[in-house]
Amino acid sequence: MRGGSCRRLWRWAAAAAWMAVLAAVPARPAAAVDDEVVTRLGHTRWTHGNSVRLLVYPEESWQARVELVERAQHHVFISTFSWHEDQYGELFREHLARLVRARRQSNPDFKVYCLVDAIARGTFDRSFRRLEAAGAVVRSFNRQSWGVGPIYDPRMHDKMIVVDGRWAIVGGRNFADEYFDPRRWWLDLEVELEGEAVWDLQLHFLKAWQVSDLFGNANRFFLSEEAARRRIATLWTTGRLPSGKSPLDRYLTAKYFPPIAGRPGGRPVAVLYDSPLVRRRAATTDLVVEMVRSARAEVDLMTPFPNFPADLTEALAAAAARGVRVRIFVNSEQSALRRGPFLWAGLPTLIELIGDGIEVWAWSGNGQIAKILAETACEPRAVPPVALHGKLVRVDDDLAIVHSSNFNIRSTYYNTEAGVVVREAAFNAELESLLDGLISLRDLRLDCGERIDDVTVGHVVEKLGPDDVPRLREILGNRQGWVDELGLLW
Amino acid sequence: MRLLRRAWLVVPAVVVALACPAGLAIAGEGAAPLDLDAWHRELGGADAAEPDGDSGRHFVLGFDPNCSAVIGFPNLLAYQANLYVSLSDSSRFSVFVGYGVEGGASADATIYTLGWGGVRRLPMAKPQWGFYGKFLRYRRFEHDRHGAHDGLSVGTESGAGALGMRFEIGAARSDDNHWLAVAQIAFTLELPFGIPPIGRDGI
Fold this sequence. Notes:
The complex is a heterodimer of chains A (490) and B (203).
Chain A: H1 2-24, H2 35-42, E1 46-55, H3 58-70, E2 75-80, H4 87-106, E3 111-117, H5 118-123, H6 129-134, E4 137-141, E5 155-156, E6 160-163, E7 167-171, H7 177-180, E8 186-187, E9 190-194, H8 196-214, H9 217-222, H10 225-238, E10 267-274, H11 283-294, E11 298-302, H12 310-321, E12 325-331, H13 341-344, H14 347-355, E13 359-363, H15 365-376, E14 387-388, E15 392-395, E16 399-403, H16 409-413, E17 415-423, H17 425-440, E18 444-446, E19 455-458, E20 461-464, H18 469-476, H19 480-485
Parallel strand pairs in A: 2-3, 3-4, 5-17, 8-14, 11-12, 12-13
Antiparallel strand pairs in A: 1-9, 1-10, 2-6, 6-7, 7-9, 10-17, 11-15, 13-20, 15-16, 16-17, 18-19
Helix pairs in contact in A: 2-11, 11-12, 14-18
Chain B: H1 2-27, H2 36-42, E1 60-73, E2 76-88, E3 94-104, E4 107-122, E5 128-143, E6 147-160, E7 163-174, E8 179-190, E9 193-195
Antiparallel strand pairs in B: 1-2, 1-8, 1-9, 2-3, 3-4, 4-5, 5-6, 6-7, 7-8
């Protein structure tokens, strides 16, 4: 009896040890980009114990940001590229205005800072007045009145909401109907964060906030561009101005950076932030190139604007050549977010990638679905996205990036961008299943309810192959030369 | 033996005693102020000083011949042609000088420009040159009716590839105290280039 118990115990122990070994061995080979490479190329640090929630669908994303700002007791920081005067743009502005008024009654120190790109803000300037009247401070990023900044100067393309230094949302969504209207939504990606990573994100916001105020037009006129950039770069990389003083000092308190109680989640996150005012080339693109170069089994990349820098295109081609499955997710010409040169600029890259044997998946939901819905009076409970606006990279079952960067020329050299890189198999798998789900919509049927039969939409996503190249060349025509030469615009 | 067992009990107690103050500090009250310098070292600040480092310094001797259609005073509509020569280390300084001519319905001018800025490399799908500068200008106007004027103006000029814009404001005065306003917006065609030429990576 005693010997039998012992044997059983040994069997259990052996089985447990075997399970532990199996659990330790990854199902697929891990990528070779280690933590040190991420921090070095990304100019970042790893933070641990973060809660990271992927936000994909418009309703959940809207709900998440409304609830996020509702939690605010001390401050809300928002940066965005565009903030339209449409239904959802106005709704969020009104929501914020109400929040500021309500919070200020009990806490006069409550702050809402909004940083909007100067070009986008200029377009909708009037619409911010009520928000400002309520007590929010709205600034324009990188004003260029009368040419005091060069026409190729950076635009602020990062999008983040940081609340009380505790919670944040960062990713690809601006404030406009196409990001939140479930009837005609762009598929976008962002993450809701809680944990130490929020501090890094907030630090970047505060620097951008300082930079927006650092140079009035007169200052900027008399400073040489090199001196201006040197001041900004010094502030960004050291937290101090060249004089040694730090405009960030007043924010380094527990009110802005409250101590993090425990570990809200278990995910290691590194915040990625790019500013051409600080570095000529985006750290995110450098990291993506390295991730692709080191990939061993799979690379997935989604972007609405695929005119990549040459080294990224080459890295993708080389990965495919060594047997890595490379999938690129883009919009087809029917679903293009912007037409004309914005569409044409990406075509040379796509033609090259198709020639290199890369799987290029083109989303073409827009025209077909809208037309079918109009013709059949079908009102499905869920409408697939009309276009892709999400930006992600995932490699093997290891690193995954969700970002505002399109990984293209403009994002690499001329935009500020923000996002996160997450090292966790489960998060990576979540993104993979999302992409697999998109591909599965090749034979889409819309559930129109009980009154109307289901509608077959057919192919809303298709894999582009060599047969599609002549069509893409025809769309591009003889425009490649001037599209490349004016490439900073798209 | 019993003493040894008690010693084992002491170890967790010591661990808890050491951990608690740290936990309390993390939990809030009495938290140490954030160390900005340490934080930035962790964020890679030490190796991120590209603007000061030699890696960011590339001397460029630039040339930017350009011609413009000018809208504004004193001619309402005029042409202008300039040649700028610039020197930059792409990191700390850039200066340029220029010589040009302007012609219009009521006044012609010779233009001397001194500015900060110059020809720059712009990374794109096909890397190319651009121009950005802010300047002071001296002009010698020959006005149809009021003769010679000496003018001073300030302005900005910015271009990417072959296209650019210029804004300028100032005034000119003749010996007999006749004044001309200088307020112009110009659309320019440019041909900026530099030495050494652009490499494959845009640098």
